[in-house]
Structure formats: structure tokens, C-alpha cells
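Whiteboard transcription, Tuesday session. T.W. wrote the C-alpha cells on the left side:
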């Protein structure tokens, strides 16, 4: 059998890239979400999954905090010696501004780059934010939080969510804006939701493990479902960090006029991701 070697520069460049990736390929997993979407659980879940799967885990919630820039990623890669391929997981990235976390794929020789998008109904996010910033979130670590808490406590939940939706510096609809018309690459990108995580953890977990090509995904999902079986149980209303986990909290806490305002403001996102019934 005769093998023909292409002299086309583009073919040669592609072949060289493939060889380089085989020698030092990096599988990158990014987990994107927003505050008040269960991101502390995402941190715990992906940290433990990374330990189990021998991923390098990069997180702003680590101690000391790590950042999601190129230098921090390179530092994680450099820690792995004698490995032909390593997986680095960055989680949770509390932003959908993908360009801020883009990498030069030639520089990092990415063998693959997978993204997980973890979404939550923005109306419930604002209700959760009201109770969190107004009563339960620690204020000692950041200047100005105590005075902001006092301001929020003078507002009703309806006043707060409408104000945050309409006049705050970085409203939720702007945080979701990068996904409004985003074309998801279903081979390399997965969309999951907070709602599924708290009501059907097995399906949520299995979707992630299967997407990441984790061996024995069904067995591990069952094991993790048992491990976290009490994670999303809250007995009644509570002013704790996990105050109210049940999806649809905005329907119980807001008056119809406020819900109408939010529905109009978030219409694009609510329709696209199935949050408008």
C-alpha cells in the first residue's frame, strides 16, 4: 500500500497540530453559571469530581483563590509532570461572557474544550438575591455590604426585584445576554439547569458525567445521588443560605404586576430556555 504525503501547507499544519496535541494535549472543561444558581454546590461537586477523575481543578473558590486567566491555567498544566494528556476543570465561572475566558488554542494545545452551561430562572435568582443580600449573606468580607443590606431591608421583595431588573448597573438580562442568540455546539457544549439539579439530581448528574465521557457514568451517578441525597432538602421557609430550593419561588413571593414586569424584561431568555409556561 502506498501512502501519499500531502505537500499542501494547510494539511501539513493540521498534521503538525495533531502530532503536538497527541504529545501534550489539554482537555479543558469550563463550567459557566451565575450567582444565585447554586454555584457553591457546583464548586463542591466539580471539585470532588475532579479529585475522583484526576482532573486539575481551577477555581476562584479555592483557598487561596485562583483565577481563570491564561497564566493560572498554564500553572495548573505545569504541575502535571510525565502526563501526555491532562484535564483541567475551571468551575464555577460566574459569567456567560465567553470571550473573557477564551484561550489561544494553539498556545495551549487543547485536545478538546468542553463547556457546561448551568442556568436558572432569572426571576427566582432575583428573589433569592433579595433574601441573601438582605439577610443571610456575610457582610464582613467586603466594604459597603452592611450598608447595602440595610438598604435592602427597607425594601419589599417586589421593590427589590423590579429595581434590580430595570435600573441596576449590571442587570440579570445583561448577564444572560451572551446566550440570547448563542448557537450551542452540542458536541462540545451542554446546557443543564438549576431546576433539574434540585428536582432530578440523577438526570442532572448523569447528563454531566456522560457528556464528560466519565467511565461507568451510570454507576457513579447512582453513587453521587446517594452522597448528595440530602443536599437539596430544606424543611419549610428558612432565612439560611439554602433558604428555599424549590423552583418557582417568584410565583409565591411576588405580586402579579412584578412578575409581569420581569416576564417582559427577561422574555428572550425565558422563552429560549423554556421558563415561560
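and on the right, the sequence the group agreed on:
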Amino acid at each position: 500500500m502506498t501512502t501519499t504525503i500531502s505537500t499542501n501547507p494547510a494539511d501539513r499544519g493540521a498534521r503538525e497540530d495533531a502530532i503536538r496535541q497527541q504529545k501534550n494535549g489539554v482537555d479543558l472543561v469550563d463550567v459557566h453559571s451565575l450567582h444565585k444558581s447554586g454555584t457553591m454546590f457546583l464548586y463542591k461537586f466539580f471539585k470532588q469530581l475532579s479529585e475522583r477523575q484526576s482532573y486539575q481543578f481551577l477555581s476562584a473558590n479555592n483557598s487561596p483563590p485562583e483565577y481563570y486567566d491564561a497564566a493560572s491555567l498554564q500553572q495548573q498544566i505545569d504541575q502535571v509532570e510525565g502526563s501526555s494528556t491532562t484535564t483541567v476543570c475551571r468551575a464555577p465561572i460566574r459569567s456567560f461572557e465567553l470571550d473573557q475566558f477564551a484561550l489561544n488554542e494553539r498556545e495551549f494545545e487543547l485536545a478538546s474544550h468542553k463547556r457546561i452551561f448551568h442556568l436558572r430562572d432569572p426571576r427566582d435568582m432575583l428573589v433569592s438575591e433579595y433574601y441573601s443580600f438582605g439577610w443571610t449573606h456575610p457582610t464582613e468580607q467586603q466594604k459597603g455590604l452592611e450598608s447595602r443590606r440595610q438598604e435592602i431591608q427597607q425594601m419589599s421583595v417586589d421593590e427589590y426585584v423590579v429595581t434590580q431588573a430595570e435600573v441596576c448597573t449590571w442587570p440579570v438580562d445583561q448577564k444572560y445576554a451572551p446566550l440570547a442568540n448563542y448557537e450551542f455546539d452540542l458536541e462540545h457544549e451542554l446546557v443543564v439547569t438549576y431546576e433539574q439539579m434540585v428536582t432530578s439530581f440523577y438526570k442532572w448528574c448523569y447528563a454531566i458525567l456522560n457528556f464528560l465521557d466519565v467511565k461507568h457514568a451510570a454507576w457513579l451517578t447512582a453513587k453521587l445521588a446517594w452522597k448528595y441525597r440530602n443536599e437539596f432538602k430544606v424543611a419549610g421557609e428558612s432565612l439560611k443560605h439554602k433558604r428555599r430550593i424549590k423552583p418557582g419561588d417568584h410565583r409565591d413571593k411576588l405580586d402579579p404586576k412584578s412578575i409581569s414586569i420581569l416576564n417582559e424584561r427577561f422574555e428572550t431568555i425565558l422563552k429560549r430556555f423554556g421558563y415561560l409556561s
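Someone added at the bottom: The mean pLDDT is 84.
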